[in-house]
Known about the structure:
By secondary structure, the chain is α/β, with parallel strands linked by helices. The chain has 12 helices and 8 strands.
Amino acid sequence: MTLPSKVKIVEVGPRDGLQNEKETIPAEVKIELVDRLTDAGFINIEAASFVSPKWVPQMATSAEVMDKIRRKPGVIYSALTPNMKGLEAAIAAKADEVVIFGAASEAFSQKNINCSIAESIERFRDVAQAAKQHHIRLRGSISCSFGCPYQGEVPADSVADVVRRLRELGCDEIDIADTIGVGTPKKVQAVMERVAREFPIERLSGHFHDTYGQASANIYASMEVGIAIFHSSVAGLGGCPYAKGATGNVSTEDVLYLMNGLGIDTGIELDKVVDAGQFISQHLGRKAVSRAGNAIAAKRLG
Ligand SMILES: CC(C)(COP(=O)([O-])OP(=O)([O-])OC[C@H]1O[C@@H](n2cnc3c(N)ncnc32)[C@H](O)[C@@H]1OP(=O)([O-])[O-])[C@@H](O)C(=O)NCCC(=O)NCCSC(=O)C[C@@](C)(O)CC(=O)[O-]
């Protein structure tokens, strides 16, 4: 199978990457991180999450971040919105895109957003209608598409069912997420081929956490079956608070190094992403979780 000549990389570090950090990160650090990523050339950055601050305290600065980042024309700044309260906050914050986020497993849906899959779709219905009325782009995200920390196996048909429901709500793009990083290439290809029967493949994305070190292989395998949109997290930051032990998304630096090596265009400057990864890692007081990021940074030191 041929690989795509160009892929879209959605940078989720400022949200998925930081949401799990225990120490409160000042808004100005989050703002500088987003601005650095804007300068690196991303056309889509997930910068905020309008959820309960009791559930995810780190995202309580989302309104300030969205207000003070330097917006570049043509760049989509996204925010998670699980319900109408979140959507109203996202409209006030002038989000370019809102993300409704469900799960392919009942157990994770309950743990993450405190409702069943069916209830979440009903909650999302109002959010989707309001987003469309306000001409805001709508993305859907499906957690645990390759396995659930609570129920284990997740059938591809379960993922396809949620894709169908999100399609009916009018999603412009749908993320197939490996929340706990358990996916491996053959399984990933099977799930991607199954869900591509429910939704245009060019608007499906792969969101891979790297807990078992499989994310880059899974990205390659996804490209082989036609996926050309991927999420990643600068410095390999992150993990979902409701998936114990889940590490961060695959690092953006590793993904860009892979794409550059394959001659696949991303429009993003790897060196600037390495700078951003080193910036946030220094603030957090720990090394980046990125092989390519750390190797490039070390090489600079000579
Ligand atoms: C979804 C809820 C709010 C439902 O929580 P709930 O308890 O069912 O909602 P509620 O309506 O009963 O409200 C409870 C409290 O939350 C407040 N509230 C209610 N909604 C909002 C809101 N939008 N923004 C701010 N506050 C809100 C509401 O005002 C109330 O405040 P109180 O009266 O107790 O002071 C809750 O379960 C929640 O916030 N969960 C957090 C989910 C989350 O952020 N998870 C991590 C992101 S998802 C993820 O990382 C996975 C992903 C996307 O990356 C893909 C992958 O890898 O899998």
